[in-house]
Amino acid sequence: MMKILYNYQRYAVFVIVALVSLASFVGAALYSAWLLVPAILAGALFLLGIHDLRQRKHAILRNYPVAGHIRFLLESFRPEIRQYIIESDHDEVPFSREERGLVYQRAKGAEDKRPFGTMEDVYGSGYAWLTHSATPTSIADTDFRVRVGGPACKQPYDASLFNISAMSFGSMSANAILALNSGAAKGGFAHDTGEGSISRYHREGGGDLIYQVASGYFGCRREDGGFSQEKFAELAADPQIRMIEIKLSQGAKPGHGGMLPAAKISPEIAEARGIPMGIDCVSPAAHSTFSTPIGLMQFVGQLRDLSGGKPVGFKLCIGHRREFMCMVKAMLETGIVPDFIVVDGAEGGTGAAPVEFANRVGMPMLEGLTFVHNTLRGAGLRDQIRIGAAGKIVSAFDIARTLALGADWCNAARGFMFAVGCIQAQSCHTNCCPVGIATQDPVRQRAIDVGDKSERVARFHRNTMKALGEIAGAAGLKHPSDFLPYHLMFRQEDNSFLDGNEAHPYLPDGFLVSGEEIPELADWYVRWGRADAESFAPLEIPSWPFNRRSAA
């Protein structure tokens, strides 16, 4: 008997619900009508249990009728339980509570200081710190700028060192776009449109725009999905557009296209992207306008001419390093040099990405940035091209480290989302964003007060630049652009540490094209020799045992 009870204990809740339902109905009939309330509730649960036993979709519900729903209930708000109750200040999911709190405080203008000392494990592997000077300086003007625009650029742009990274209208709500762009206008920094083109909310905000041209060519698209020179020239003439960015890939899902279902395409999205209603909107993985390194450079030159000489560059997450060298060789062969390159890291964010892509595809930003910076130095082109960088940048230290390793400016997407009110619910892909940022639900996005949130965006930027000025002054510098690798130290696994010049050195100018090989850089020459300006395909596929000289 006990064995039978043990084997069927999984049905205990269902049996109890059935008995309570029966007893309540009997009690209601014989004693009090008030017993109808528990009778109805228990009866509903009993019917739910019957359904659980009959359905074939969830094995756990067939074995644990009624009780099995507790598992799904707990799973539904597991992220919130972790974020608000279990998570420590330094758990990354993907941004820690400390990082989010810093943004919230600076956006609100609240106290952002820390009492009692650091909570970092300063002797732990991976810890990095900034070296300071015995003669610190004071930097009064923290409106830090960098001029973007090479010799072929007729309309250079003085960009802030900290700008809003690419986020499209469609993935972001109208009020979120308007708050971000209005904040950029108030703070005097730039807002990347993302591949979804320029919406009426970008224009209403009035902030400087970086117009992103991606594989879908939204905003400058022919009916067949190809690139339209006429539409691009008309759009690029808008004085609000300060730079043009060709998107080759993004860190969160490099090499992956996308599709916006027809059901999610509103008239406003269709207007911004130049696409019809009622048809799925496809973003191919690759561009159709070019397929070779030389073709990419010719496209850069074409967009610069069509835009009247505005700065034109491209954005990518580094994959095959040889392929980036192919692009650099194409610059040398054609004489067409982009005004800027934005390096996105594998730690970058997106509204939705396959787990394999988000976790395992693409090079992290610091390594990608170092490689791009040194390849351009090796080709003798670094002084002609500005480098932007993006990838989990929210603090002044993040910016300082990125500038030290070769960037000229930084972009952030999720940091500015926090400034608008993002709580990292990680429901961006569900259209049910609890704060109205990553949704097209008109009711949900009403929660965003554009006036208040735009002030927070501008304040977050201003306070972060002030903090950047303070740590640049602590290092004895006059401007954050003076940061170099030696200003950083990196803790190693054995409790030793490396100087930044050892961990991420600047390689010699022109070393790839000088004709004289430096033995310590043999793997760079091997990869450079395999790169071809005419094609991204490898001249040969390495099949020999791996070593530094034959690295792919």
TrEMBL record:
Span of domain Glutamate synthase: 160-477
Membrane listed as a keyword: yes
Sequence intervals crossing the membrane: 12-30
BP GO terms, sorted: glutamate biosynthetic process
Record keywords: Membrane, Transmembrane, Transmembrane helix
Matching InterPro entries: Aldolase_TIM, GltB, Glu_synthdom, YerD
Keyword Transmembrane: yes
GO molecular function: glutamate synthase activity
Superkingdom: Bacteria
Pfam families linked to this entry: Glu_synthase (PF01645)
Stated family: Belongs to the glutamate synthase family.
Name recorded for this polypeptide: FMN-binding glutamate synthase family protein
Species name: Microbaculum marinisediminis
